[in-house]
Amino acid sequence: MATYETLLVEQRDAVTLITLNRPQALNALNNQVLGELVAAMTAYDADDSQHCAVLTGSEKAFAAGADIKEMAGQSFAEMFSGNYFAGWERFTATRKPIIAAVAGFALGGGCELAMMCDFILAADTAKFGQPEIKLGVGPGMGGSQRLTRAIGKAKAMEMCLTGRMMGAEEAERAGLVSRVIPAAELLDEALKTAATIAGMAPLAALANKEMVNAAFETGLAQGIQFERRLFHALFGTADQKEGMAAFVEKRPGNWTGK
Ligand code: CO8
C-alpha cells in the first residue's frame, strides 16, 4: 500500500481508515493533502477487497480549513488560471461509500470536506463552521451549496455571514450529521458502521450511494425514475438472487460482488 506524508492509511478487513495527519496545522488542507487524499480515495475505489472508508482527523481537529498560509499571497490570476482546488471533484467522484468521523474543529474547507463524504458521524466535541467571511472571502469547496442543501437557507446563510461555529448537538438537529457519539467512542463507532456497510452486497452499496446522490442533481420525477431503473438493474446481479434466497432461507447473504 502507498504511504503518504499528510495521511495515515490502513486497511481493517474491508474498511479503509484514512486519518488526516498534519497536526502542526490542525490538518489544514493544502495542495499536498488534496493530492494525497485523491490518490488514497482512487486506490480505495480500485481495491476489490475494500468496501467502505472512514475519513477522520485528530481529537482536536478534523480539519481547520484550507491552508490559509498557502492561499494568502495568491493573486486572482494564479487562483483562476491554476483552478485552485478544483481537484476536489476527483474526491467526490469516489463511487464507494465514505464516512466522515469528525471530532473537534471542522471549519471552512474542513466542514466542506466532511460534507463531501457520504455522511458525517460527529463526536460530541465537533464544531462546524464556515468562517471564511472573517478572512475576507467565502466558502470555496462547496460549502455555500452543500451546507444550504443539508441544513436549509436560514441556518446556512447565518453560518456563512457570521462565521459562527455550530456544536455537534445543533448540527444533528439541523441535519448536518447523522449521529452524535461520545468523543471517546467516535472511531470505534465509525469503524463499526463502516463494517456494517462493507458487509452489504457491494454493487447494491454503489447503487444506493448513486440513488441518494441523484436526489441532489435531479427533479423528483427524474430522480424516482433513476432509482427505479437502478432497482431494476440490480436484478441482473447474482447478489440480488443470493440476498433474496438468503432471506427466504433465514440465513445471512453470502455476497460475490457480481
Ligand atoms: N490554515 C493554516 N494553518 C492553520 C489553519 C488553517 N486553516 N488553522 C490552524 N492553523 C495553524 C495555526 O496557524 C497554528 O500554527 P502555528 O502554531 O504555526 O501558529 C496551528 O495551526 C494551531 O492553531 P491555533 O494556534 O490557531 O490553535 P487554536 O486552538 O488557538 O485555534 C482554531 C484553533 C480556532 C481552529 C484556529 O486555528 C482557527 O481559527 N483556524 C482557522 C480557521 C479558518 O478560518 N478556516 C477557514 C480557512 S479558509 C477555507 O477553508 C476556504 C476553503 C475553500 C478553499 C477553496 C479554494 C478554491
- As a percent range, the share of strand residues is 15-25%
- Major sheet characteristics: 6 strands, mixed
Roughly how many Å is the radius of gyration?
A: 19 Å
Coarse shape: globular
Number of helices: 12
InterPro entries: ClpP/crotonase-like_dom_sf, Enoyl-CoA_hyd/isom_CS, Enoyl-CoA_hydra/iso, Enoyl-CoA_hydra_C
Keywords: Fatty acid metabolism, Lipid metabolism, Lyase
Pfam family, one: ECH_1
Enzyme class: lyase
Would you give an account of this structure?
Could possibly oxidize fatty acids using specific components. InterPro entries: ClpP/crotonase-like_dom_sf (IPR029045), Enoyl-CoA_hyd/isom_CS (IPR018376), Enoyl-CoA_hydra/iso (IPR001753), Enoyl-CoA_hydra_C (IPR014748). This is enoyl-CoA hydratase. Its EC number is 4.2.1.17. The protein has 2 domains: 192 residues, Alpha-Beta Complex (2-enoyl-CoA Hydratase, Chain A, domain 1), CATH 3.90.226.10; 50 residues, Lyase 2-enoyl-coa Hydratase, Chain  A, domain 2 (Orthogonal Bundle), CATH 1.10.12.10. Helix content is 45%, strand content 16%. The protein is built from 12 helices and 10 strands. The strands form 2 sheets. It has a 6-stranded mixed sheet, sandwiched between helices. Helix 6 crosses helix 7 and helix 10 runs antiparallel to helix 11. The mean pLDDT is 97. Octanoyl-coenzyme A (CO8) binds next to helix 2 and strand 6.
List the helices and strands and how they pair.
Blueprint: E1 7-12, E2 15-20, H1 31-46, E3 52-56, E4 61-63, H2 68-71, H3 76-81, H4 88-92, E5 98-102, E6 105-107, H5 109-116, E7 119-123, E8 127-129, H6 143-151, H7 153-162, E9 166-167, H8 168-174, E10 179-181, H9 186-198, H10 202-214, H11 220-234, H12 238-248
Parallel strand pairs: 2-3, 3-5, 4-6, 5-7, 6-8, 7-10
Antiparallel strand pairs: 1-2, 8-9
This protein binds octanoyl-coenzyme A.
